[in-house]
Amino acid sequence: MTVLDVGCGVGGPMGNLARHSGASFVGINNNAYQIERARRHTRGVRLLCRFIHADYMRIPEGDDSYDAAFAIESMPHAPDKAGAFREVLRVLRPGACFGGYEWCLTDAFDAANREHQRIKNDIMVGDALPEIASMSEICEALRSAGFVVREARDCALDSDPETLWCRALEGRDLTLSSLPRTP
Q: Between the CA of residue 182 and those of 13, 14, 40, 110, 128, what are the distances in Å?
């Protein structure tokens, strides 16, 4: 398979997926510094990973080029969500899948609630995000681009309310999911 990482950042997920799957990956990013870091992060799987320095709103690849695509926390940066999704769909082969993991507002978000606004703004500032869209807006943008939405859900509902969602990323616990991040 050849898989497109839309807004690949520094290549962390792409490198791990290449190591464990054997698939070929192409990362697209408009930030030259991040691409250079991604090249270093994927050094061990260089034959499986390549990078394109470009805007994912205009992917410089032909139609039907990829077997799958994914985006991890990159679509909030798209000025036109449906346009970005149309471009991803264009480069996917017929029947290919596109998966994403994004910051989204849930239907419980109340724009008039000051605490909700504070939390939203803290996320946007902390993660250098522009305006965060709602899950329903993202699903509608996917559908209007031509995708069939198979699943969309709030992953926070699957978590233990006593454990911070980011704890596994901190590498403080010795679990299978946090082992790669332990000192």
A: 16, 19, 20, 37, 25
Helix (H, G, I), strand (E, B) or coil at 65: coil
CA atoms within 13 A on the CB side of 140: 6
Taking only the tens place, the pLDDT of each residue in 139-148 is: 999 999 999 9
Determine the pLDDT at residue 18.
93
Catalytic residue among 73, 102, 137, 140: 73
Report the length, in residues, of the chain.
183
d(CA 40, CA 36): 7
CA distance 135 to 4: 23
Residue 64 and residue 36 in contact, taking contact as beta carbons nearer than 8 Å: no
Task: For residue 73, indicate whether it is catalytic.
Answer: yes
Q: Half-sphere exposure of 61 toward its Cβ, with a 13 Å CA cutoff?
A: 26
Q: Give yes or no for a contact between 101 and 152, defined as CB atoms under 8 angstroms apart.
A: no
